[in-house]
Amino acid sequence: MRGSLAFTGLVIIAVLAACALLAPFIAPHDPRAIDLAVGLRGSSAAHPMGCDDLGRDILSRLIWGTRASLIVGLVVVLVSMTIGTAVGALAGYAGGGVDSLLMRVVDILLAFPGILLAIAITGVLGPSFAHVILALSVLGWVGFARLVRGQVQSLRERDFVTAAKAIGAGPVRIVTRHILPEVMAPVMVQATFAMAGAILAESSLSFLGLGPQDVPTWGAMLSEGVDYLLFAPHLSTWPGIAVLVTVLAFNFVGDGLRDYFDVKAG
Question: Which of 92, 169, 206, 254 qualifies as a cystine partner to 193, CB 3.0-4.6 A?
């Protein structure tokens, strides 16, 4: 059952990636084109998912919104994974005062509610792709750091590390060539779940008007449809389904990777 769900998630992610890459070619209409004559109109041959209050095609805006969500999620995860892996490896291998200092920094950051801190950062800096990525990366790396630190601490006393030290390998070589490859399986599982969280967080910021402004986003589409829920629910239904399906797809793949690599939860 888990395997079939993971495969389903992979298929959905592949379709989403194709939509993001091919958006200019497969979107049936210009996502910014306004046609007030068809505003709030439901499904039709020309507009399979209907139109919003300005007559913009919802299907086209959903396809372009896929690109925004995946770009933000991917960049946030890559930045967070890189920083978190480096910090966690340093803390776990060095131990002592270095470990204590870095983990206190992590504890302080964890004391802040993630989404509230992201709202504060984007509210001060202004809504844009770069600021959303920065806001979500500020706390995104701490989960990776804690995970890698624990893994490195459990590996640094293993026989293969002792053997590497015996032949004169330095700390950097030991960590990068011998320890980190053993840590990558749980890190990849964490990255998959982090991708789902980043996409959901980006949609939340966009819903509040703090996401990218120059491209359609699923969160902004949800926000625009709130005033029309009673008589034009399709405005919010389709972007809501898009967020739900995307987050579930990444979670399904994460569960499948966790089972495949036999990564213990918690």
Answer: 254
The CATH code of domain 2-23+63-261 reads: 1.10.3720.10
Owner of token pair 């979500």: 136
Percentage of residues in the chain having pLDDT higher than 90: 59
Q: How far apart are CA 203 and CA 75, in angstroms?
A: 15
Tokens 């939340």 belong to residue: 204
Q: Which pLDDT band holds residue 266 (cuts at 50, 70, 90)?
A: very low
Q: What is the pLDDT of residues 8-29, one digit of tens each?
A: 999 999 999 999 999 999 999 9
d(CA 235, CA 51): 7
Give CA–CA dist 182/94, Å, rounded: 18
pLDDT tens digit sequence for 84-137: 999 999 999 888 889 999 999 998 888 888 888 899 999 899 888 899 999 999
Contact, 224 vs 211, CB < 8 A?
no
Eight-class DSSP state of 37: G
Separation CA 134–CA 72 (nearest Å): 10
Tokens of 251: 């979670």
Q: Quickly tell me which residue has 């993630």 as its tokens.
A: 114
Could you count the other beta carbons within 10 Å of the beta carbon of residue 189?
A: 22
Distance between CA atoms of residues 112 and 134, nearest Å: 16
SS (H, E, C) 80-114: HHHHHHHHHHHHHHHCHHHHHHHHHHHHHHHCCCH
pTM: 0.90
The span from the CA of 18 to the CA of 15, in Å, is 5
